[in-house]
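<tokenise_the_fold>
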Amino acid sequence: MSEEDNGEELIRLIEENDLTGIRLWLAGHAPYEIADELERMDSHRAIVPFRLLDKDRELEVFEELDPVHQQEILVGLRDAAFHDLLEEMDPDDRARLIGEAPAKIATRALAGLSPAERKMTAALLGYPEGSVGRYMTPETVILHRDLTVGRALEVVRAKSADAETVYTLPVVADGRRFDGTVQLADLVRADDEAELKDVVDVLVPRVRATEPAEDAARLMQEANLVALPVVDSEDRFVGLLTFDDALELIEAADSEDIARQSGASPVAGHYVAAGVVRLARARATWLLLLIVAATLTVNVMQAYEATLEEVTALALFVPMLTGTGGNVGSQSATAIVRALAVGEVRVRDLPRVAWKEARVGLLLGLMLACVALVIGSALVGPMVAGVVGLSVISICVWAAAIGSCMPLLARRVGVDPAVVSAPLVATLVDATGLLIYFNIARLVLHI
């Protein structure tokens, strides 16, 4: 049975109030599959199969949901189930949920936690929003550097039940000062009498708890880490960023960048469950800004109205030139936004990037100008075709350069580079491209 049929079957069972059938459906699917189907439904439907889950699977499914749908599920639960679910959650997942929840849900959630869990959650919520401290897990097995390997393994066995991960084990000196990490596999292979300080990796990357979570996730990706140690301002160990949280961070950041590059605000939650008004609102702001920015093109056309009246053939190529410039600029901006996100370029590389992209634009312009010359010569003659060809080259060079510089300049002034979206670059290049076109026409055609 396909995924689509699976989802339709579950909806049918819910509509028919077939509780036995729903239980059988739930038993035959993995937690991530159940979570995906619940995210596609409205909260009134989703709460029905969720309440029928076994207690152990309930938590697994709940932690697979994004925070928006977690909040919707919590609203539909009675107090006992509400508090039991939150109490069993991993501290980092719980802190993110409470941090993003409305004040009413957050207060209710914190009030029902045990003192130990409340203290742990409050500590994570004390870090800045978007920092790695909000995403790390404090539930780890910490080893002292003066232990032997054999004794360290005993500690792991004794404390592993309360830890979120044991694959990467932090090693500390006195005062909880971070010394490095040791992999469980290396610990198992080492001699029991060996000293832990002789097998610890002291060069492992580490991040401060107040640093951006996305940067930490990218670092894990680059360094191929299963878990990344997190320390405080005094280099004391406070937690680990695990690979599953890092993957979610990267996915969320990439989704946000894609939305902004298309000229829209990010929409939290599942697309299928999002309402029409909510989707329209996410796109409306940017479209309003872009239509205002597009008046620059109208103003340029109006300023060169006399030129167009003298050589009306020039108007035929305006859509082609603006479209070409916008496409080249958008390609360049998208490439640099992505390169910034994965750490391939930095702000200080701006001159080098602009020079490289300008040369890319030149090559593209030469290629496209050949096509424009052939088309232009056939339609309006060689003189106007020559203007079009020169304009294509100039606009491509300009568009590639400006498209590459804008994300870097945005990063320099502290603005998200993705906000400098492809549609915005295209709109600005349209207006400036027309200035280039009409001024070349005046010089070549002496008008």
Q: What stands out?
A: The mean pLDDT is 85.
